[in-house]
């Protein structure tokens, strides 16, 4: 199976500090790939390189088997790569529709095409089976943490995206809301998207991912199928970078 998104040999430094060393990473359509690693392992940096926010120093990026060059967030968006950041970047004083179309508003002549935007927002939310939101004209400030996360994810998939990268989507959520968001994460993959889930929470990772990629001090320690590993083995990869008794060949499940 060809990965939808594949990185090879990515190096990234900030001044004298080398943060990513020869990193390889693959994400597949229809699957959730968890990107794990301790604080400072380089997860956010890697994602920002994919999203065109940081230029890479070396390495290659492939999309659906074809080499691509991403120099800006716009390049990433054109390929269908969307990133939902931890701080969500939703505007409290705007409603759900306004947030989902922020910066990419539909126009009808000089006026905003509110009807089309409402319809598309509605269709996207119901396509994701999101029923927790009362009205799409509700201000985002009135939403719960889980609902906000849902809106941010729906916003990312509104644009025919093919790869959705979620940075710690459940970090600030309680138990019930976490379950709802994880269900949504699974559904995104089931609709054919390649989903990358950055998470520190092993329960979340094991509940929803098909594969796990573990970064350790800026190097890819292992890429494995979730079904092939235990919690303890993944914790070992995160904390020591070693694959122990995993029997990996170059860090990848055979
Ligand atoms: N803009 C920057 N300038 C200099 N150093 C940076 C910059 N961004 C990140 N770093 C360094 O790169 C390393 C990796 O950071 P990064 O944020 O990618 O890790 P992370 O795995 O996402 O961590 P966390 O789980 O804490 O979010 C850290 O040592 C960090 O201090």
Walk me through this protein's architecture.
This protein has 254 residues and is α/β, with parallel strands linked by helices. The protein has a domain at 5-93 and 162-240: P-loop containing nucleotide triphosphate hydrolases (Rossmann fold). Helix content is 31%, strand content 26%. The protein has eight helices and twelve strands. It has helices at 43-50, 73-79, 96-100, 114-127, 145-157, 175-190, 202-208, 231-240, and strands at residues 5-14, 17-27, 32-36, 58-63, 66-68, 81-84, 107-108, 111-112, 163-167, 194-198, 211-216, 219-225. The strands form three sheets. The chain has a six-stranded mixed beta sheet, sandwiched between helices. The protein has a four-stranded antiparallel beta sheet with strand order 2-1-4-5, with helices on one face. Strands 7-8 form a two-stranded antiparallel ribbon. Helix 5 (145-157) runs parallel beside helix 6. The chain is globular. The mean pLDDT is 89. Adenosine-5'-triphosphate binds next to strand 2 and helix 1. Adenosine-5'-triphosphate binds at residues 14, 17, 19, 37, 39-45. Pfam families: ABC_tran. InterPro entries: AAA+_ATPase (IPR003593), ABC_carbohydrate_import_ATPase (IPR050107), ABC_transporter-like_ATP-bd (IPR003439), P-loop_NTPase (IPR027417). Residues 5-242 form the ABC transporter domain. Keywords: ATP-binding, Nucleotide-binding. This is Sugar ABC transporter ATP-binding protein.
């Amino acid at each position: 199976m060809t990965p939808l998104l594949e990185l090879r040999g990515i190096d990234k430094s900030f001044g004298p500090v080398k943060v990513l060393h020869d990193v390889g990473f693959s994400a597949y359509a229809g699957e959730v790939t968890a990107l794990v690693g301790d604080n400072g392992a380089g997860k956010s940096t890697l994602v920002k390189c994919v999203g065109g926010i940081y230029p890479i120093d070396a390495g290659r990026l492939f999309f659906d088997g074809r080499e691509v060059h991403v120099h800006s967030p716009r390049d990433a968006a054109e390929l269908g790569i969307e990133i939902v950041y931890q701080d969500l970047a939703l505007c409290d004083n705007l409603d759900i529709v306004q947030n989902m179309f922020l910066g990419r508003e539909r126009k009808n002549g000089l006026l905003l095409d509110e009807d089309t935007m409402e319809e598309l927002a509605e269709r996207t939310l119901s396509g994701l089976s999101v029923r927790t939101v009362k009205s799409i004209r509700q201000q985002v400030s009135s939403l719960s943490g889980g609902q906000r996360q849902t809106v941010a994810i729906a916003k990312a998939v509104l644009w025919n995206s093919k790869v959705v990268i979620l940075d710690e989507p459940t970090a600030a959520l309680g138990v019930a809301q976490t379950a709802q968001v994880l269900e949504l994460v699974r559904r995104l993959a089931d609709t054919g998207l390649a989903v990358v889930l950055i998470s520190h929470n092993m329960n979340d990772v094991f509940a929803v991912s098909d594969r796990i990629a573990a970064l350790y001090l800026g190097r890819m320690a292992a890429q494995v199928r979730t079904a092939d590993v235990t919690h303890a083995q993944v914790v070992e990869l995160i904390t020591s970078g070693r694959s122990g008794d995993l029997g990996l060949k170059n860090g990848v499940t055979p």
